[in-house]
Specification:
- The chain is α/β, with parallel strands linked by helices.
- A five-stranded mixed beta sheet has the order 5-6-7-8-9. A two-stranded parallel sheet has the order 1-3.
- The protein has helices spanning 57-70, 144-156, 169-180, and strands at 11-13, 21-22, 36-38, 43-44, 49-51, 81-83, 106-112, 115-121, 131-132.
């Protein structure tokens, strides 16, 4: 926050630093000219931050989304976060080192047209359904066609259908049993 008042600061990349803090502390009048922001994992909500609970994610996403809405041109390069291996929400199927399959423990933003959301996904990108933060643009909107096209792509990628957050351990195994019993070509990992 010591850099928040720099009037011409356009890019702030603190990723490989020991900076700590909380993204929720960035106010509407902080970093007003910033165009690119990369925060380290030591910052609550920083890039590659590790959530202790699945339920912690919406609060951080909300703060990042608010930051982006205040500064529409702000780019948060390569932002994603994940569920900590030490989380009580983690289970064996969520192991990111399992070569066969891993649960959706990573969280990232998605965008279709001007609509922004986020989703949980596996290390190799097999996602849950998106949680949209913006309303669907109207058919009269100038980017509606682009929105529909990008939305179709996002929806075709969904592996964990019906899940907007990582499934419980029991649900995870049910999804995998159904997948293994199907003729689906899509292998998420």
């Amino acid at each position: 926050m010591d850099l928040a008042d720099f009037p011409r600061l356009k890019e702030l990349d603190l990723f490989q630093t020991a900076v700590i803090g909380d993204v929720r502390d960035v106010g509407e009048r902080d970093f007003v000219t910033l165009e690119t922001l990369t925060l380290p994992p030591g910052v609550y909500g920083g890039c590659h931050y590790e959530f202790l609970r699945i339920s912690d994610a919406p609060d951080v996403i909300s703060a990042l989304y608010s930051l982006r809405k205040q500064r529409p041109s702000l780019l948060m390069k390569h932002w994603c976060a994940k569920l900590s291996r030490d989380s009580p929400d983690c289970y064996e199927g969520m192991d990111i080192y399992d070569q066969r399959s891993s649960g959706p423990i990573f969280i990232a933003f998605v965008q279709a047209g001007s609509r922004i959301g986020y989703r949980w996904e596996t290390k190799r990108g097999a996602p849950c359904e998106a949680i949209w933060l913006d309303p669907e643009p109207g058919q009269e909107s100038s980017d509606y066609e682009q929105y529909i096209e990008e939305l179709r792509t996002i929806e075709q990628q969904i592996f964990y259908r019906g899940f907007h957050q990582p499934p419980t351990e029991d649900e995870y195994y049910i999804v995998w049993e159904a997948y293994e019993g199907s003729e689906d070509d899509y292998y998420p990992d």
